[in-house]
UniProtKB/TrEMBL annotation:
Enzyme class: hydrolase
Origin superkingdom: Eukaryota
EC number in record: 3.2.1.15
Protein name: endo-polygalacturonase
GO MF annotations in UniProt: polygalacturonase activity
């Protein structure tokens, strides 16, 4: 570990940006030890050192770290205002465990990547087609839990997560911008599974913009929370932009959600809302706007109140009403053997829906829709 004052990083910075070789490890200028306080920049080349000294640094540079197997790169409990920068390639060793591989928390924390960096989780070592349903125990990737104040995650390049990528939980005021998650290698022989892009729960005021997600499960799944925006995203390979499944957790309310200006291609579904059979909770104030679909294999738009243990029962229940749902400018095509729109609501548990400019074509018209509220159609 090298600690240096801020100006030293500014000098080292350009050399790192243009070079694939490890950061120069010149000795720090310890004459300035007296000012190693809130302006300290620490360059770490080992996960253990980063975790041990994380609260002594205003800026934490994670320089080509190879995280040992079975270890979380643990940056929880950072000081307010800490900046974390991934540089070079960050890798994780193989072990069957539940993770997470990276964890961060704190107030006003900014996490970003230097140009050319990657977070390579080497998911192929775990992929067995079973995801979190069986086979090898797979570590979750990135726990963004309890980030508060004005925290941000910007420009990260994530490759090949073993299973779910980002878990956003108990966050307020978090902005996630321009993050790329590329799990497309997991499409080969359908080995990648349950590789959700962003799972959001129990959070308030979260914005995810400019995400590129190539995966094999939900691009976005919001289980609970309020004031959540997803915009300018490009999703492919997965299960679509989802609310749910809602119900059966400790927090089961979803409200004030905007999902906009995004594309969904080569995916099982486009727009999806699912609530849990027999559960209680609420989904209200959800708006999908300007979503373009292409090559959708199951449903263009699917809203159903019948989920049980991760599968639909076909029998809707009414305990998680879906109210004040706006769909505008949802356009595009599904495969010819897919279904354009499917709505399965319980009696009276879907209401106050406003749909305009919804044009999903190319597939079958469903004959199984139930209790379609006025304003919508199958
Ligand atoms: C994200 O990318 C867009 C387009 O390149 C850019 O305009 C924007 O400033 C970026 N956002 C952040 C926070 O870097
Ligand atoms: C969830 O919503 C229900 C119904 O609107 C409400 O009674 C309950 O207080 C809410 N719970 C939370 C944790 O917000
Ligand atoms: C609609 O979304 C696309 C991205 O899919 C974006 O380029 C375009 O600007 C959006 N249109 C509006 C009116 O926001």
């Amino acid at each position: 570990m090298i600690c240096s004052v801020e100006f030293l990083l500014l000098i080292l910075g350009p050399a790192v940006l243009v070079s694939a070789t490890p950061t120069p490890t010149t000795a720090p200028d310890l004459k300035n030890a007296a000012v190693l306080d809130r302006r300290t920049t620490c360059i770490f080349t080992a996960a253990s050192a980063a975790s041990a000294s994380k609260t002594s640094c205003a800026t934490i540079v994670l320089d080509n770290i190879a995280v040992p197997s079975g270890v979380t790169l643990d940056l929880t409990g950072l000081n307010s205002g800490t900046h974390v920068i991934f540089e070079g390639e960050t890798t994780w060793g193989y072990e069957e465990w539940s993770g997470p591989l990276f964890s961060v928390s704190g107030e006003n924390v900014a996490i970003s990547g230097a140009p050319g960096h990657s977070l390579n989780a080497n998911g192929a070592l775990w992929w067995d087609g079973q995801g979190s349903n069986g086979g090898k125990t797979k570590p979750k990737f990135f726990a963004a839990h309890s980030l508060t104040g004005k925290s941000s995650i910007t420009g990260l390049n994530v490759l090949n997560t073993p299973v779910q990528a980002f878990s956003v939980n108990s966050c307020t005021g978090l902005t996630i911008s321009n993050v790329t998650i590329d799990n497309s290698a997991g499409d080969v022989d359908s080995l990648g599974h349950n590789t959700d892009g962003f799972d959001v729960g129990s959070s308030t005021d979260v914005t995810i913009s400019g995400a590129v997600v190539k995966n094999q499960d939900d691009c976005l799944a919001i289980n609970s929370g309020t004031g959540i925006t997803f915009t300018g995203g490009a999703c492919s390979g997965g299960h679509g932009l989802s609310i749910g499944s809602v119900g059966g957790r400790s927090d089961n309310n979803v409200s004030d959600i905007t999902i906009s200006s995004s594309t969904i291609t080569n995916s099982a579904n486009g727009v999806r809302i699912k609530t849990v059979s027999g559960a209680t909770g609420s989904v209200s104030g959800v708006k999908y706007d300007n979503i373009t679909l292409s090559s959708i294999s199951t449903y263009g738009i699917v809203i159903e109140q019948d989920y049980e243990n991760g599968s639909p029962t076909g029998i809707p229940t009414t305990g998680v009403p879906i109210t004040d749902l706006t769909l505008s400018n949802i356009k595009g095509t599904v495969d010819s053997d897919a279904t354009n729109i499917y709505i399965l609501c319980g009696s009276g548990s879907c209401s106050d829906w406003t749909w305009s400019g919804v044009a999903v074509t190319g597939g079958k018209e469903s004959t199984a829709c139930e209790n379609i509220p006025s304003g919508a159609s199958c």
